[in-house]
Amino acid sequence: MIPLLGLVLGVLAGFIFDVSVPLELQPYLPIAIVAALDAVFGGVRAVMEGIFNDKVFVVSFIANVLIAAFIVFLGDQLGVGSQLSTAVIVVLGIRIFTNVATIRRHVFHA
Amino acid sequence: MPEPSEPRADTTSGGQSRRFTPAAPSGLRRLWRALSKRPDAGHIGVGLLVGLLGFAAVVQVRVDQDDALANARRDDLVQILDGLRRQSERLDDQVAELEADRRDLVSGANTEAEALAQAQERARTTGILAGTAPATGPGIIMTITDPDRRVSSVLMYRAILELRDAGAEAIQITGEGNDSAVRVVLDTYFLGPEDGAMIIGGEKVEPPYTIVAIGDPGVLSGAMSFTQGVVASIEDQNADATVTEYNELTIDVLHEPEEPQYAHPAPEDEDD
Question: What ipTM goes with this model?
Answer without folding.
Answer: 0.80
